[in-house]
Design brief:
- It is built from 15 helices and 8 strands.
- It is an alpha/beta fold.
Length: 386
Amino acid sequence: MLLSMPYLGHSLSGWGLSFLSLCFILLLQRATGAGRELKFVTVVYRHGDRSPISPYPKSPRFIYANILWPQGPGQLTRQGIRQQYKLGRYLRKKYKNFLSSQYKRKEIYVLSTDRDRTIMSAQANLAGLFPPEGKQIWNHRIAWQPIPVHTLSRKNDQLLTYPILECPRFLKLLKETMDSSEFKLKLKKYMPLLGQIAPQLGYDVKTLLDVNNHKLWNAYDTLLVENIYNQPGPSWADQATMYKLRSLLELAVTAVFGDHKREEKARVQGGLLVKGILNQITKAATTSDPRKMMMYSAHDITIIALQSALGVFDKKLPPYAACHFFELYKEADGKYTIEMYYLTDITKGPAPLTLPGCSKACPLDKFKQLVAPIIVDDWTAECQKA
């Protein structure tokens, strides 16, 4: 016996259409981040691999610098060019649905410190980010096009070059830090190491302890770069010693920008860059400015000063081509949020950074509120405070 069933043709047809519409909406939401829209990106990166900045007095092999590094000290190497080109290709892939496929000058602004290695790093990065396409191809044998890289004069750079020593307030805070019992206790365990390596380098211990002259930093850097290029180092600079030296330098830079009165230091150091970045982000959120990306080509110390000001520094020296991201999103409810990421290895991808006191996707207004203590209106006046 056949059971009598109602005719479902029209209802199934309508249901099927509704189901397909629902699927389309869900897929669309997933593709667009459930209604959120990326509105602006700021990237701050360290330059690529370079030659040593300067030799230490007893450096035995720096006489071969013209062979190993023919362009001289502190210059971007071929490896550094490749690193930045790869970072540019990474940015192209990451933001392929955000940036135009072809270079548009109104979409991106690139600012570099006035150093050969950072200017060249920006150029190499842009070669990977915006290879010429279509009518932008001017030579079929060269997959490159000129893109403006702007610079700040070394004398007036208070945005990307740190530490800024022409600030009495900062120097006083720095002295307080170095004189603090907490820092002295941390430094104590490194004193035997300094006593051991100082004569090997050609310095006295007092000179190496002066964080303002960069002697220890440059000596470590020379040894590190020579090691990267498989040059035999002095017998005393073994792996254990280099690890201790790196740890000492990480202690030093953390003390310079953080630890004791971190926020007060940030007001006259990395807070200046935070302020500049926030101004750009706010403009993107409140106007119809066509700019989509701000790119800063700078140094490891720039990243350290920035992250210390934000309270997200992991107390590790940034590697070549390390990159800090700020992403501004417009959420489905019309409000804006900021997300931060830190890239140190392209193969592993960026790690999320969370501003202390906020969530990963930090509301823009709350972000501003949380960083307000490190933002100043008059840097000169702040530097003159007793």
